[in-house]
Specification:
It contains seven helices and twelve strands. By secondary structure, it is α/β, with parallel strands linked by helices.
Length: about 230
């Protein structure tokens, strides 16, 4: 079973539950995703990766993106079809990158990071693809062609089983539960930032309030407005 399927197995009991609230203090934006919406983006991404790039379990997918609600769909979609998320583009089936980074790779997907989920205003250069515009045309449901074994690499050099075990152990150590609303300002670096900043709260079925480009002066107000119950260590 893939890492995404293990996460969704717990979360889908409450599909309407808010799962991710994303702030970007530099842009002044706030976006909230439910469990169902998050699953939808993950399914679209997984279908797109399989149909467009023939991604199979164990294939590398490079993710060079900030902590953002669109990054959640990319990561969960990659894991759902069995991909191994890495930082460097060498040998990756596809490289996901932001509009301000130029990557020389055979297959590049540019993620707009637009707060409202719009695609790029102009086509990306060099044959790169507009992830949001392309992936949104893919199916809303994903059924893997083959199961993902637990010993398949999923994040850096760690396998599906290793990542899941570590994420659940760290969540338990922090005392996180499905009732928690967790504030984080962590960067989602590969692998440690993604593990601690995204997978730990999701493994506990907690609501993640992610603040990107955080303004320290606004964090107290964010905690109060979102009624957060825990902070992730920075």
């Amino acid at each position: 079973m893939s890492l995404t399927e293990q996460l969704l197995r717990q979360l889908l009991a409450s599909p309407a539950k808010p799962l991710i609230t994303h702030y970007d203090d530099r842009l002044g934006s706030r976006v909230e995703l439910s469990v169902a919406t998050t699953q939808n983006w993950a399914a679209k991404t997984a279908n797109w990766l399989v149909d467009e790039f023939d991604v199979e379990p164990g294939d590398a997918v490079a993710v060079r993106l900030p902590a953002h609600w669109q990054t959640v769909g990319v990561l969960l979609g990659a894991w759902w079809c069995g991909a191994r998320v890495v930082a460097e583009p060498d040998g990756a089936r596809v490289v996901f990158t932001s509009p301000d980074e130029e990557i020389d790779a055979p297959a590049v997907a540019v993620v707009s990071l637009d707060p409202m989920g719009r695609g790029l205003s102009t086509p990306p250069a060099g044959g790169a693809l507009d992830y949001l515009s392309e992936a949104r045309m893919s199916g809303d449901q994903f059924v893997p062609m083959q199961p993902t074994p637990g010993d398949t690499p999923a994040l850096g050099s760690s396998t599906v089983d290793e990542v899941w075990t570590e994420a659940t152990a760290r969540a338990a150590k922090l005392g996180l539960t499905a009732a928690d609303r967790v504030l984080s300002t962590m960067d989602w670096t590969v692998p440690d930032g993604i593990l601690d900043g995204l997978l730990v709260p999701l493994a506990a079925s907690a609501h993640l309030v992610q603040v990107t480009n955080a303004d320290p002066a606004k964090l107290s107000a964010r905690r109060e407005a979102e009624r957060t119950t825990a902070d992730l260590p920075s």
